[in-house]
Design brief:
69% helix; 12 helices; mainly alpha; Heme Oxygenase, Chain A
């Protein structure tokens, strides 16, 4: 099978899981929870956006928090831009927490979600192994932007409109951070066995991502619906960039 066909196949493996992440957001907001019921997922997403900031050495981290920028010598330009974007995303969500809940949520504040911890541990193992596994881990990052697209569609009260505005920015920046790695997967995959391994890793990480999102939003999807999504009983999410 040609590389282009393999990429389309791998994209089809991702599609139901990404659609599941979008469904989590829809199901959460369909519950019509009061503002207090929105703060948990906001904190959790802000915490996730600040992960790369927390990983910086103290000096560059302090500079970034103070100015929103890193010094030219702190990292290569692509990595520096991504870190600055992630901090900008964090700042958008921290502003929502400040304006709607009176909270001062900082980059060092922690949110402990067991499903997210298991996801990050699994991703870290694949990144350490490098090559194909690192590329596949990167591919699953961000869930194809499905959650961001869904949140950017919100409308109604001031809170929902502000969330939508924030995620229009976040979604625009994040669109190709994960999906573009499908080309790195294709470059690293040498044979059918590598592609099959990539598919297994995609399924394992994507399954854990869906559990993480469901936990983050207070488990709006029950076990039966999660099993249906795992079985592909959902409209697939389109791959967001050209293959």
């Amino acid at each position: 099978m040609a590389s282009a066909e393999r990429k389309r196949w791998l994209a089809s493996c991702l599609a139901p899981w990404w659609a599941g992440e979008a469904e989590v957001a829809r199901a959460h907001f369909a519950r019509g929870l009061p503002l207090a019921g929105q703060l948990g997922w906001l904190r959790a997403q802000a915490y996730k956006e600040a992960r790369v900031v927390r990983e910086l050495p103290p000096g560059p981290r302090a500079t970034l928090v103070r100015t929103g920028r890193l010094s030219d010598g702190d990292s290569d330009p692509c990595a520096r831009r991504k870190i600055e974007q992630e901090f900008a995303h964090f700042s958008l969500l921290a502003a929502l927490l400040r304006d709607f809940a009176g909270e001062r949520f900082g980059v060092e504040d922690r949110v402990d979600l067991p499903a997210d911890r298991r996801l990050q541990d699994a991703r870290a193992r694949h990144r350490r192994r490098g090559g194909l596994e690192a590329a596949v881990a990167e591919l699953t990052e961000g869930g194809g932007g499905a959650l961001y697209v869904e949140l950017a569609r919100l409308d109604g009260d001031d809170f929902r409109r502000r969330v939508a505005a924030a995620f229009r920015v976040i979604g625009r920046d994040e669109l190709d951070h994960g999906p573009a790695a499908i080309h790195a997967v294709a470059h690293a995959a040498r044979d059918d066995q590598d592609w099959e391994r990539a598919g297994r890793i995609v399924e394992a990480l994507s399954r854990q991502r869906l559990l993480m999102r469901n936990e983050m939003f207070g488990e709006p999807l029950g076990p039966a619906r999660l099993r249906e999504i795992a079985a592909g009983e959902i409209e697939p999410w389109p791959f967001p960039i050209p293959l």
